[in-house]
Amino acid sequence: MNHPHDPDAAARSALRIIGPDPANWVPDRPGIDHNVAIVGGGQTGCALAFALRRAGIGKVTILEAAADEQRAGIWLNAARMNMLRTPKGLPGPELGIPALSFQAWFEARHGQEAYDAIERIKRTDWADYLSWYKHFLGITPRYSTRLDRIEPAGDHFRLHLETPTGASVETARKIILATGFRGGGERFIPDVLTKNLPPSRYSHTEDTIDFTALRGKTVGVIGAAASAFDAAGVALEQGAAAVHLFCRRAAVAATPVIGARFFAGAIDNYHQLSDADRWLHAVRFFRAGSMPTTDAIERAVKFPNFHLHLAAPWTDAVERDGHAVTTIHGTTYRLDHVIAGTGYSADLAARPELRDFDGQILRWRDRYMPPADEQDEMLAAYPYLGAGHEFMEKTPGSAPLLRHIHVQNPSGFVSFGLPIGDVPCMKRDIPVITGRISADLFNTNLDVLRPRMVGDVPPGFTDAIYRSAVR
Ligand SMILES: Cc1cc2nc3c(=O)[nH]c(=O)nc-3n(C[C@H](O)[C@H](O)[C@H](O)COP(=O)(O)OP(=O)(O)OC[C@H]3O[C@@H](n4cnc5c(N)ncnc54)[C@H](O)[C@@H]3O)c2cc1C
Asked: Which residues, in sequence order, are bridge partners of residue 325?
């Protein structure tokens, strides 16, 4: 029962009932700063930090490149939709503790009826909830701290950091990459833009875009997934003269093929599927196309100055008189600005922090040869992750430390079958990663833990309490 003036009462009570956090059981080692370095202070990094704490794993640090909480994660930045795309009732960062869930947080502030009335979660409410989660649980990402390079150093890593006070090096035994979309590669911007137009003429949907500067302008959007429609919607709401959205396909992707395997058994046991099964699902997902939400489409379509061009791939572009000019099927478009809603590439070689492991990480292409009609170079570049979400070695024995880097970003898609980092995978993946890290730290510290487990324990009582009854 929530006290009307204390929306945190139920959450506090839940923490009291689950009891104090277990003490840190991981033995200190000379020269090691962190048992676990979590890279990324978005929802994934913060939820993992809470899970590790509850597993008694101390000395965990969260490295976050963004300057502050507002700029970390996507919700107040690249995400422009009004509502989350995922259903409101999914389990998330509360990690099985109902009073820490979005629903409990929302109802404590607005009441149960208000929760029942929302169709999906407002993006800004989700951001507020995540902010509360962090502060309430005392999770403190280190802002303005970017991981630049992971250097192997014997049985641990040297982390090269850019910090507010300059470059520094810290050491860690385990790393979790909770680095979001870009963590598996780079933003993908088609060559037709990068090769033909000055960078000022286009943006990627991930960029901070000054939409007010597009008021009265003609804007082109390339791509027809949710982020593209979101960007079109914001441009129109901010007063763009016209928005042209160019979709490569003959129709906007409308079939959520992933829905067929969105049941608990398939989600929970996905990693046990054969390579052939998992590959087929990944190919099927990408061939069906990334589907925008209905409200994202409606948000744009309601404007008469929104123009949707189907079967309209860009093949040429030129900068002319301050415009991006392209001709598609004989029609020429003159655009003041172009926004690429074209997603991300899977390219581990593009990740600066992984440069020391270039060529050593096992990819799907090293492990599985698909049938001719299922070939896909882009998917083949995804890392082939182990059951604890760890990188694996391309050549066994060549880079044994890779198994201590755990990946919880979208590059885990082919291995784990869901958009990794999104809310739907939290319930499954966070316990798995935490369990593996706990097991690895336990096993690699047995030299200290084994004697501890058979160490001296003071008696619980002396014979004084029963001596009088001894006959
Ligand atoms: C437009 C858009 C809409 C989405 N809508 C939904 C939705 O409705 N529902 C849903 O479940 N998912 C949605 N997603 C997926 C979404 O990305 C995730 O749910 C969520 O943001 C994942 O959180 P995260 O913490 O894993 O990653 P992010 O929120 O991306 O956070 C990653 C963090 O890592 C930091 N970082 C990266 N590299 C480094 C480095 N080298 N050093 C230090 N810090 C680093 C970044 O600064 C960032 O703050 C959406 C994604 C996009 C792009």
From this structure: 318, 334
pTM summary value = 0.95
For atom 3 of ligand 1, the residue with the nearest CA is 79
Contact 225, 292 (CB under 8 A): yes
pLDDT digit string (tens) for 441-460?
A: 999 999 999 999 999 999 99
Task: From the CA of 145, give the closest atom in ligand 1.
Answer: 43
* C-alpha distances in Å from residue 146, one per residue of 220, 373, 407: 33, 41, 17
**φ, ψ (nearest 5 deg) of residue 91:** -65, 145
- Whether ligand 1 lies within 6 angstroms of the CB of 159 is answered as no
Ligand 1 centroid – CA 44 distance (Å): 8
Residues of 260-291 as b/e, b for ≥16 C-beta within 10 angstroms?
ebeeeeebeebbeeeeeebbebbbebeeebbb
Q: CATH code at 202?
A: 3.50.50.60
**Cβ of 422 less than 6 Å from ligand 1:** yes
461 occurs within a structural domain:
no
283 domain residue, yes or no: no
Kind and range of the H or E run holding 454: none
For the CA of 123, the nearest atom of ligand 1 = 8
Residue-range definition of the domain harbouring residue 163:
9-184+345-450
